[in-house]
Amino acid sequence: MAISMLLAAVLLAAVSFGESSYIAYNTTGGIVPGKINVHLVPHSHDDVGWLKTVDQYYVGGNNSIRGACVQNVIDSVISALLDDENRKFIYVEMAFFQRWWRQQSKKLQTRVKELVKSGQLEFINGGMCMHDEATPHYIDLIDQTTLGHRYIKDEFGQTPRVGWQIDPFGHSAVQAYLLGAELGFDSLFFARIDYQDRARRKDEKTLEVVWQGSKSLLSTSQIFTGIFPRHYDPPDGFVFEINDISPPIQDDVLLFDYNVEERVNDFVAAAVSQANVTRTNHIMWTMGTDFRYQYANSWFRQMDKLIHYVNKDGRVNALYSTPSIYTDAKYAANEIWPLKKDDFFPYADHPNAYWTGYFTSRPAFKGYVRMMSSYYLVARQLEFFKGRNSTGPNTDALADALAIAQHHDAVSGTQRQHVAADYAKRLSIGYVEAEELVSSSLAFMAESRLITGPANPITKLQQCPLLNISYCPPSEAVLSDGKSLVVVIYNPLGWKREEVVRIPVSTERLIVHDSSGKEIESQLLPVVNASSHTRNFYVKAYLGKSPSGTLKYWLAFSASVPPLGYSTYIISSAKQTGASSTISKVQTSEGNKNSTIEVGQGSLKLLYSADEGKLTHYINSRSLVTAFAEQSYSYYSGNDGTDKDPQASGAYVFRPNGTFPIKSEGQVPLTVMQGPILDEVHQELNPWIYQVMRIYKGKEHAEVEFTIGPIPVDDGVGKEITTQITTTLKTNKTFYTDSNGRDFIKRIRDYRADWDLQVNQPVAGNYYPINLGVYVQDDSMELSVLVDRSVGGSSLVDGQIELMLHRFVLPFVIC
Ligand SMILES: *[C@@H]1O[C@H](CO)[C@@H](O)[C@H](O)[C@H]1NC(C)=O
Ligand SMILES: *[C@@H]1O[C@H](CO)[C@@H](O)[C@H](O)[C@H]1NC(C)=O
Ligand SMILES: *[C@@H]1O[C@H](CO)[C@@H](O)[C@H](O)[C@H]1NC(C)=O
Ligand SMILES: *[C@@H]1O[C@H](CO)[C@@H](O)[C@H](O)[C@H]1NC(C)=O
Ligand SMILES: *[C@@H]1O[C@H](CO)[C@@H](O)[C@H](O)[C@H]1NC(C)=O
Ligand SMILES: *[C@@H]1O[C@H](CO)[C@@H](O)[C@H](O)[C@H]1NC(C)=O
Ligand SMILES: *[C@@H]1O[C@H](CO)[C@@H](O)[C@H](O)[C@H]1NC(C)=O
Ligand SMILES: *[C@@H]1O[C@H](CO)[C@@H](O)[C@H](O)[C@H]1NC(C)=O
Ligand SMILES: *[C@@H]1O[C@H](CO)[C@@H](O)[C@H](O)[C@H]1NC(C)=O
């Protein structure tokens, strides 16, 4: 009897020991009406390149810069989701997901497909990257999103429902209506808006809005938009990364520091406080941040327990959720949402931190991205005309490279140097493959029309991507050998174009014929090599002061090209006696008797003051306009962060500390080249600013080419170089800038439509991104400036447009 009682006691003890150590956490909770519902959205924000390259982030290379390994994230998240069917996760960046996917076994791929099908793993946003919204062109945004979405559709049969632009530094109207509503997204979420705007929205409970980004597409352009109350990380005290962890919930009575009640109270307090700034009783907690979930169980273990104990407590209801589930709950709540128009630029996160410097950061890279983007358009059209060959040269590599170049630390110019080089390398690899395709397609099309005749087949079509430094060996070589050069010009746009084409040559007596054999007027302009410090050499050489045999010219002629088609022109050596291209008349302002120099062969003329070497007037003889117009340069000295507020001007932030005019230091203020096709006015302001203004005979606009840099910073002061075009237009503080190259938005200096602006940074706070152009106008005139890459700009003075062309800030701070 005694013995059996003892046995029973031992058994009892064993049973109760087992019960207290094992808890089956109940995480099945759905939405509970009438309670505050806390939607826990597990996520990892994985930059497709920033401090490390995209591949270094993926494999976890160069971890001394930043401990981040995306394959750890995806591996551990997948296994945590497979462990508990109630857990959810969203994944955003397809550039990373693709890298991971192709390394998995068929068996695991099948299980992951089930996770996607059941909604445990949801693709959100779904482009190759989380693109920037200030500096990309909308075509590139569509392309990079399409690439990711097509992949998700092909592999998983799904289409993302939600826009998740949590990190970009300001938000564009095009994002709302084109990459949001028109794309079929039900909602859009992000974190970064102006700190003044956020404070007001929290007070007024207007962090969640219906955003109507387009002025013309009214009903179809609306999208439910949620702005997070602070950032895209969890509320304080709920971070559970393995090496950055808030107090874990300790629910084992056999261990010390049991804290379930305390942690539940913390949870309820954080939920109530957020609900206080949110309409409806649904709130979202973004459970994750940059490169988190390296060891996913560290997060899921805590969330499992929180959901279990919080729901047992019952004051609020917690659930695993996704932005789609959250959106559906908001929709079902039948609330009226405030309307938001226009966009969310510029973005400041505190009084001296306007993130408007990156509109211009790395301008050469921004230019390269834009050029590759148009080349991709051409290559795709030609690929289609000839027929796609997926094993031969195609546009896939260029498409991939361009897609990740739209990332918010890529084209934005905010990445580290070795990362910038990595993006450029990828673009270059893509270009080389696309170039092969373009050459063979154009040769195929041209030959099929026998433009050169069977006796002269096109053997080799070469392209000249470095025309920006007048580098084109084929054109120089062929013509110097006395052979003819066939120039094929392709027009990817849907309308006929008449453009002046310029080709570097190194012979003088040339003649241009069109494909029907008709002679075309042409002009030779001496090459001035603005990328080298000996650039004046060529002008002087032309003026007869330099050794012979080194002459080099631009051959310019006017080409006419049909829509989505090409034209061919033949350049050959002229007979000694016959007609040939006109050599430009070159004069300098030095010793010029006229105080005014007039340039322009057509109805547009520009007048320059010879002594001062600057533009003074604009004349259009067709529209009978004569107007004052001046162009100047200046620079902002960057705040170096030694102020009371240690915010320095950096890759992102523009914080000027002073503004200084840049006067011309050149002894020869102007060099003017004139001829039948175009006039050029060259100005070398100093050893690092060179400018060419071009006026084409048949056009009513002037074209300006800037060559700026290296910016001298040996005085220890960072500089941001600007140019101003000043007119007498009465513009009443108003100017217009485009949204991602698509439509124009009205801007008013020192003013925001949504709130009473407190002006802290009168320059930086009035800068806006310019992708396509900026204009000012009054009752009688308009001044428009179109750009060939994205830059920052403003109108800080009535009648004036200012563009920031280049910047070199010290120290180079990554925020
Ligand atoms: C788990 O929680 C859900 C909702 O909170 C509830 O309906 C269900 O009965 C619970 N299951 C168990 C086993 O407690
Ligand atoms: C690691 O980063 C440094 C820059 O901090 C760079 O110089 C180096 O090349 C990187 N390593 C690799 C393998 O890219
Ligand atoms: C709710 O917000 C109001 C004002 O916005 C504030 O005074 C109050 O303290 C807040 N309550 C909680 C619980 O956060
Ligand atoms: C596709 O490209 C490959 C590699 O260049 C070539 O061998 C093949 O003939 C091409 N196919 C077609 C249909 O042109
Ligand atoms: C010319 O263009 C190439 C890219 O195509 C760029 O890398 C280079 O910096 C440019 N050079 C100048 C002087 O603008
Ligand atoms: C212009 O200068 C660059 C860099 O100095 C050089 O690579 C290029 O060949 C030069 N072009 C001409 C036409 O001399
Ligand atoms: C001076 O300028 C006027 C007006 O542009 C022009 O008609 C005249 O030919 C110029 N004279 C010289 C010497 O360039
Ligand atoms: C601002 O510029 C002045 C010189 O103009 C310099 O003395 C000062 O250190 C600068 N301040 C900061 C914070 O950059
Ligand atoms: C200038 O703009 C303001 C609004 O920004 C407007 O109230 C005012 O009438 C305008 N003035 C003129 C002269 O157009």
The gyration radius over C-alpha positions equals 31 Å
Low-confidence stretches: 1-18, 450-455, 531-549
C-alpha geometry: globular
Q: Mean pLDDT score, rounded?
A: 90
Main sheet attributes: strand count, strand direction, barrel closure: 9 strands, antiparallel
- Which ions, cofactors or small ligands are bound in this entry? 2-acetamido-2-deoxy-beta-D-glucopyranose
Care to describe what's here?
It is an enzyme of class 3 (hydrolase). Its cofactor is Zn(2+). InterPro entries: Gal_mutarotase_sf_dom, Glyco_hydro/deAcase_b/a-brl, Glyco_hydro_38_C, Glyco_hydro_38_cen, Glyco_hydro_38_cen_sf, Glyco_hydro_38_N, Glyco_hydro_38_N_sf, Glyco_hydro_57/38_cen_sf. Its EC number is 3.2.1.-. The protein is globular. The model is unreliable at 1-18, 450-455 and 531-549 (pLDDT under 50). The protein contains 16 helices and 40 strands. A hairpin with a 4-residue loop joins strand 24 (596-599) and strand 25. The strands form 10 sheets. Strands 24, 25, 26, 27, 28, 33, 36, 39 and 40 form a 9-stranded antiparallel sheet that branches. The protein has a 5-stranded mixed sheet with strand order 4-5-7-6-12, sandwiched between helices. Helix 12 (363-386) runs parallel beside helix 14 (417-448). Helix content is 27%, strand content 27%. The protein binds 2-acetamido-2-deoxy-beta-D-glucopyranose (9 copies). One 2-acetamido-2-deoxy-beta-D-glucopyranose binds at residues 732, 748.
